[in-house]
Design goal:
The protein has eleven helices and seven strands. The protein is an alpha+beta fold. The relative contact order is 0.13.
Length: 243
């Protein structure tokens, strides 16, 4: 899938809730539906003040010219080998200078987040949710375990498809005995919000999908699901060190 369209699917969920990006959700939605991977869609995605800098950082670290390259998009949202090529020093500089965390966090919070880099934190979406966003000073309700679970990209295994309704089994983020973890699989009923002739419209029992803010983003492979789970569990482990 084209990197622009792929990225827009993941960006759509939080944007419709006014959490991230420009207030142009209908425009983003229409471009996804029309599969309009053009400069207009690129300009919309470039306005996502958190996501696009991460993509740029991953691309630059891997000598890839285009931040919306498909593999770069996959690295940030799902995880792949591109993440392993990023020097710790440049990731620290990115958080300090590009995201300007040193200006927006108190010293203790900034040190807590950046210390994770030495322990293996990577510029994956799960790290941002569990360590950066959680300390960003937004309203307390947005930092509930339920909302962090919604914000994490999760894996869903299709149980059934009935018209616009898709039931999946997924592992939510839970808080038990003072620690975060992926919980036991639960069934979740989702409405099909995006359409595509080549994957979302053709979903069937047993397929794997990625989910962001209760929006099914795309059909994924077993390897992609394994990568997503690996990087998410790793950043949960690091987050638990400073709860």
């Amino acid at each position: 899938m084209d990197g622009l369209l792929r990225c827009s699917r993941y960006a759509f969920g939080p944007n419709r809730l006014h959490y991230c990006g420009p207030d142009q959700n209908r425009e983003i939605f229409s471009r996804i539906q029309e599969e309009a991977a053009d400069i207009g869609l690129a300009e919309l995605l470039m306005q996502f003040e958190t996501m696009y800098p991460y993509l740029t950082h991953i691309a630059n670290s891997n000598k890839i010219r285009e931040p919306l390259n498909e593999k770069v998009v996959e690295a940030y949202w799902l995880g792949n080998a591109l993440l392993e090529n990023i020097p710790k020093s440049s990731f620290y500089a990115y958080l300090k200078d590009d995201l300007r965390l040193k200006d927006t966090f108190d010293k203790r919070s900034f040190d807590m987040v950046t210390d994770k880099i030495g322990k293996g934190a990577l510029p994956h979406h799960s790290f941002h949710v569990l360590d950066v966003w959680r300390r960003s000073g937004k309203q307390e309700r947005e930092h509930s375990v339920e909302n962090m679970s919604e914000c994490l990209v999760s894996i869903g295994k299709i149980v059934s498809v009935a018209g616009p309704w898709i039931t999946v089994k997924t592992e939510p983020l839970v808080y038990e005995k003072g620690k975060l973890a992926l919980g036991k699989p639960v069934e979740k009923k989702l409405v099909r919000q995006l359409e595509s002739d080549y994957d979302i419209e053709q979903l069937k029992q047993g397929d794997l999908v990625s989910i962001h803010w209760s929006v099914i983003c795309e059909k994924i492979t077993k390897t992609q699901a394994e990568n997503l789970k690996k990087y998410t569990k790793w950043h949960i482990k690091l987050a638990n060190e400073t709860l």
